[in-house]
Amino acid sequence: MHAVEWEELGRRSIARYDVFGVAERRARSPRTGQILSFNVVEMPDCVQVVPITRTGDVLMVEQYRHGAAMASLEFPAGRIEPGETPAEAAARELLEETGYVADSIVPMHTVRPDPAILTNRIHLLAATACARTREPAQDEGEAVHVRIVSPTDVDALIRDGLVHHSVTITAWYFHTRLHEKKG
């Protein structure tokens, strides 16, 4: 990479909310020396898990997303809580949202959803041999419906625009194009 780092001169919190904060970062341009301010959204790191059942089907969840004001079909996902590893967070989110547990959860890749303004990373993990052990235990802000689909149906759902969550599409790409080829 050839980009030159900016010299950070300061940070200040502008606003704090339940899920995210907004901060101003001041930095010196390596090209002009000018001091500029940038607003960033501070968010916790998250996980998105691609769960494959013991029969080879794919678990997806459908839920209403207030940012898009519509239902979204995606993979189980959520914040990494303090002290959790990404694999622990993935196992917790999988169980909470679907009632399934996996024999194995392995990392595939880590991405940044929008490094221009978002501070967080999203850890993409694969969960194998998933089996239902209980009813989902969703929190009060969730109304999640579990959908079981074939792997070829996931491709069709993406192609047809029924899966539009960019991180879900990215996770599926890593799972089908890179992760499966390793295993």
Give the integer mean of the pLDDT values: 93
CATH superfamily label of the largest domain: Nucleoside Triphosphate Pyrophosphohydrolase
Low-pLDDT regions: none
Note the run of SSEs as H and E: EEEEEEEHEEEEHH
CATH hierarchy class name of the largest domain: Alpha Beta
Strand content: 35-45%
Strand count: 11
Number of helices: 3
- Overall geometry comes to elongated
Enter the CATH topology name of the largest domain.
Nucleoside Triphosphate Pyrophosphohydrolase
Annotated CATH architecture of the largest domain: Alpha-Beta Complex
Task: State Rg.
Answer: 19 Å
Class by alpha and beta content: alpha+beta
State the helicity in percent bands: 10-25%
Total domain modules: 2
Biggest β-sheet description: 5 strands, mixed
CA-CA gap between termini = 30 Å
Topology:
Elements (H helix, E strand, L loop, with lengths): L6 E10 L4 E8 L6 E8 L3 E8 L4 E8 L4 E5 L2 E3 L6 H13 L1 E2 L2 E8 L10 E11 L12 E5 L1 H9 L6 H17 L1
Parallel strand pairs: 4-10
Antiparallel strand pairs: 1-2, 2-3, 4-7, 5-6, 5-11, 8-10, 9-10
Structure write-up:
This protein is of the alpha+beta class and 183 residues long. The chain has two domains: 36 residues, no CATH class; 137 residues, Alpha-Beta Complex (Nucleoside Triphosphate Pyrophosphohydrolase). It contains three helices and eleven strands; from the N terminus they run βββββββαββββαα. The strands form three sheets. Strands 4, 7, 8, 9 and 10 form a five-stranded mixed beta sheet that branches. Strands 1-2-3 form a three-stranded antiparallel beta sheet, with no helix packed on it. The protein has a three-stranded antiparallel beta sheet with strand order 6-5-11. The longest helix is centred in the C-terminal third of the chain and has 17 residues. The radius of gyration is 19 Å and the shape is elongated. The chain starts with 6 loop residues before the first strand and ends with a helix.
